[in-house]
Design brief:
Alpha-Beta Plaits, binds nickel (II) ion, four-stranded antiparallel beta sheet, alpha+beta, 4 strands
Length: 138
């Protein structure tokens, strides 16, 4: 792998912000440069998640639902998982208690496709909770 080129740059910021930042870096044991690199990647990733539909992203969509067979919801979810098999890489099903299931979908693909799947889960009122956690990894 080719070694990345590094550049130095200086920034102006309020003294309080710098002190607080350094204090957090010290608490987590990370150098200021490592922390800033990480923060910049997060910041760029958040921008791209919001603005670049065709960018590739990966992460998870987690849902909580009542598995009651009479509602047909589980069949509906399975159909949806098959429709989106190209972006759903893996599924984890946890039986939380007698009635409730937690299903985690690990996803990878264009942001726009992942968003479509997220909306499909959101629009089903029988699903109690829907959470999305996405990252830009490319
Ligand atoms: Ni279950």
């Amino acid at each position: 792998m080719e070694k990345e080129k590094y550049q130095r740059f200086s920034v102006s910021l309020p003294e309080d912000l710098r002190k607080e930042f350094d204090s957090v870096c010290e608490k987590i044991g990370m150098s200021r440069s490592d922390a800033i690199r990480k923060a910049m990647r997060d910041y760029i990733g958040e921008y791209r998640l919001a603005h670049e539909d065709k960018s590739l992203s990966s992460g998870s969509i987690t849902i909580i639902l009542n598995h009651d067979e009479r509602s047909g919801l589980m069949d509906d979810i399975t159909d949806l998982e098959h429709d989106y098999h190209e972006i759903i890489q893996s599924t984890l099903h946890v039986h939380l208690d007698h009635d409730n299931c937690l299903i985690v979908h690990a996803v990878k693909g264009p942001i726009s496709e992942i968003e479509k799947l997220f909306q499909e889960f959101l629009k089903r009122p029988e699903i109690k909770l829907v959470k999305k956690n996405m990252m830009i990894t490319e």
